[in-house]
Amino acid sequence: MLIVGAKGFAKEVLEVMHENNQLQNLVFYDDINLDSPDLLFDTFRVLKSPQEASHYFKTVDNRFTIGIGNPVLRKKMFDTCSALGGELTTIVSPRATVGSYDIVIGTGSVVLPHAILSNSVSIGMGCIVYYSSIITHDCVIGDFVEISPNAILLGRSSVGSYSRIGANATVLPDIKIGQNVIVGAGAIVTKDVPNDCVVVGNPARISKQLTPLQFNK
Which strand (E) or helix (H) includes residue 59? Predict the structure, then answer.
């Protein structure tokens, strides 16, 4: 499998791959950082061009996962690697707690150790569910969402695509958070949040408007 990125979050993904005994033919891909080593941890090859990635997909393994934290960059790398022939793949730590009933984990999402997903939870494609975060019953998460460590989403809440829920933030029951929203660390969200904004504090209030996202069709 190919992990997109060779720094930061990619190292978190590597540990889940190690837990799952999925290290055979594992490589990383970083065509941005000029200081990336040829071998990460003196073990894993780092591919450094689209041509190398395409060759890997065609001749070794067409699966990839995304080791980059920013939701918009994750979407862009999904598009890039898919165009090169890759197939986005879901990664779930065996140390995560995942409910037994009515669970949807979208293609390419990464669930890290000690995350808790209750029953009747739906997570979109390309998401990150970080350490010790809790997503309770009947929550719905869009695509390419980042749920940070210790964040809590309570019953029937929802989060729109490309949003980020900060560390230790809490989203109360039945709250709807829009697309392209950043919920600040430690925020307590007590009211619905519209698209394209940053909310902070307790109770959370809009502190900044964001430019609406635009992607090439």
Answer: helix 50-59
* Rounded CA separation 105/30 (Å): 26
Residue 217 predicted with pLDDT over 80: no
7-50 residue pLDDT tens: 999 999 999 999 999 999 999 999 988 788 999 999 999 999 99
Which two tokens mark 176?
A: 């709807």
Q: What is the DSSP string of 62-101?
A: -EEEE----HHHHHHHHHHHHHTT-EE--EE-TTSEE-SS
User: Residue 10's closest CA among 162, 143, 112?
Assistant: 112
**Per-residue buried b or exposed e for 131-159, using 16+ beta carbons within 10 Å of the residue's own CB:** bbbbbbbbbbbbbbbbbbbbbbbbebbbb
| CA distances to 24, 90, 113, 201, 211 from 64, in Å | 13, 9, 20, 37, 30
pLDDT in tens, 83-120: 999 999 999 999 999 999 999 999 999 999 999 999 99
* pLDDT tens track for 164-197: 999 999 999 999 999 999 999 999 999 999 999 9
113 neighbors 95 (Cβ within 8 angstroms): yes
* The pair of three-digit structure tokens given for residue 155, joined into one six-digit string: 């019953």
Tokens for 152, please give them.
């809590």
